[in-house]
Every structure is written in C-alpha cells, then in structure tokens.
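Q: Give me the 3D complex with flavin-adenine dinucleotide.
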Amino acid sequence: MLPLPRFDFADPTDLAELVRLAGEPGARLVSGGTDLLPSMKHRLFAPTRLVSTMRVPELRQVEPLPEGGLSLGAAVTLREVAAMPVVQRDYPALAKAARTVATPTIQAMGTIGGNVMLDTRCRYYNQPAGWRVALGGCLKCEGPVCHVAPKGKGCYAAHSADTVPVMMLLDVSVVFATAHGERHVPIRELYGVDGRTWLQVPGGSVLVRLEVPPPGAPIAYRKLRARGAIDYPQLLTAVQHIHDTWRCVVSAVGPAPLRLEATSPPELVEAAMAEVQPLTTHLASPAWRKKLVRVELARAMAELGIG
Ligand SMILES: Cc1cc2nc3c(=O)[nH]c(=O)nc-3n(C[C@H](O)[C@H](O)[C@H](O)COP(=O)(O)OP(=O)(O)OC[C@H]3O[C@@H](n4cnc5c(N)ncnc54)[C@H](O)[C@@H]3O)c2cc1C
Ligand code: SF4
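A: Here is the predicted complex, encoded as structure tokens.
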C-alpha cells in the first residue's frame, strides 16, 4: 500500500475562513479526497496542509434559484446529487452522469465540486512516483518531454470528469468565492487547452456552488469505459436537440471538453469527427477511440429519437 505524505489538516466551518486558508502557501482544498489522496500517494502533489470544504454550510446547500433552476453546493456528494428527486425529475442526465463515476462507494465520498475541479489524466502521469521517475517524468510532472507528443510543447492529458459534459449542455455557471467577493464563470469557459493549466481560474480558488438553469431540452449522456464500474472514461458524449440546433459535448479526448453545434445530426457528427483527435493518453488506441466518437454520438442521438 502506498503511504500518504505528511500534511496538516484544517476543517473550517466558515466560508471566509475557508477562502483565507485556501490562499495560504502550501495549502490545497480537499472535499471527498477520492482523487486528491490517490494523487498524493503517487507524489503528484505534496501539499503541507489540506483544507476541507465539507463543514462549510454554503458548500453543502441545495436550493432553488430565484429565477428558476437549482443551486447545488460544491461539497454535495455525487450520491446525493444522483438521489435528489429534483435532479432525477428535471436533470435526469446529470443524475445518470453522477451514477457513472467510479463506484457507489466513491460516489458516496466524491463531490460534484471535486468532479468539476478534477485533474486531467494521462497514462504517463497517473502512475506511482517510481514508475514516472523511471521514465524520466513528463511535462506535466518532473520531466522535459511529453511521451504522448514528444515533439510538442503542450500537455494533452485528458479531461475525465463524468458530470461536466452534461453540465456544459445545461449551461451551468460555477461560482467561486474569493477574498474580494464572488466570481461567476460559465462552465463552458472553465477549461483550457493545456493539460497542465486546464482550469482557467487561479490555484486555490474555492468553488462554492453550481448554478443550474431551469431544465430545457432532454440530454442523452453516454460514457465509454473498459468495465462497467470503477474505470475513468475513455470517451464521454452528451447530445441535445434544441429547436433547429443540435449540440454535443465530447470529452476524455483532450484537456478541455469539446462543445460543438450544428444544424443537422450528420453535420454535428462530421464536425465532431473533424475536431476530435484522441491521442495515446489512454491504453485504448486513439484510432479506436476516434471511430467510437461516431458510434457513441449515433447511439446518443438514437436515445433522443434523432437520426
Ligand atoms: C478508483 C477511482 C475511479 C474513479 N473514476 C472516476 C470516473 O470514472 N469519473 C470521474 O469523473 N471521476 C472518477 N474518479 C475521481 C473522483 O472520484 C471524482 O472525480 C470525484 O467527483 C472527485 O471529487 P472529490 O470530492 O473526491 O474531489 P477531491 O479528491 O477532494 O478533489 C479533487 C480536486 O478538486 C479540488 N477541489 C475539491 N473541492 C474543491 C472546491 N470546493 N473548490 C475548489 N477546488 C476543489 C481539490 O483540490 C483537487 O484538486 C475516480 C476515483 C477513483 C479513486
Ligand atoms: S500528455 Fe504528455 S505531458 Fe501531459 S501528462 Fe501525458 S505524457 Fe505528460
């Protein structure tokens, strides 16, 4: 069993204190810890203090928004999200996505906020320290070269958060608390194109809640993975049809989920096939994952009764 490095632990009950502690040098926020703690065991991060979000009431709150829709606290667990009658009724694709994360036990600990802030993943990065160091590290951690694209200067580690494609189609807004007040960011603008700097907010930003607009057109969500549980995605697709527009998000193929729109289902599929370029970030072959983009989009459209 891999040991954790030593660290202090803070468990604030007040939002202002949480923001203050998160901004201190060496601090790192932890919610369920289901991604962060394994990464610390792999020595990907060595924070000197973990600051828990779980006892701050604002992050555990769920309430209707005044203009319609739902406010979901960042520290609400995936199991709670999936079990909420309002989510099952108004946002069934979000409930389905929450239920596809890892396993039921991990869903009971992991939070929706931790999922939004999840690190990007790569077969050369998510490995124990000895394995990585034997390979000389890589651009995302400890090394001078990317093993996926050795001539490139970027990192292509894949966005792998199961709930995000659905939340992008729902046009969710994520709300951060800072020392100077709140900052609202549309979730579709939260992610960037480099796997090292995939979050477009400063480190230590405290995600407080997700604002989900009133329900709209149905969304079909599909996750491709090696086994029916535990595994991170090899490919994520979410599709929605609103009036004359077909929208989709394709994820697990690069640092940012790809959001595309078209005026017909065939155009949407061709746009995705032109844009999506899976790389060797996963054990499964990129060519196979690329072929599956067309297949998974067709299956998602069939679920919506399109095509
Ligand atoms: C075996 C296994 C399989 C998994 N499979 C999947 C999978 O299939 N799909 C998937 O999406 N995930 C998967 N995960 C990852 C993880 O369980 C989920 O992504 C979960 O939602 C993470 O939430 P958490 O609360 O545990 O996050 P944590 O581990 O606590 O934190 C994750 C990251 O978010 C940051 N963070 C946490 N809360 C906040 C906040 N409020 N504000 C700002 N930053 C914050 C942390 O600093 C850290 O960088 C898996 C994990 C394991 C161990
Ligand atoms: S894509 Fe390249 S730089 Fe990024 S984690 Fe993988 S090997 Fe490292």
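A quick observation: Residues 28-36, 38, 53, 74, 78, 101-102, 106, 109-111, 113-115, 117-119, 160-162, 205-207, 230-233 surround flavin-adenine dinucleotide (ligand 1) (CB under 6 Å).
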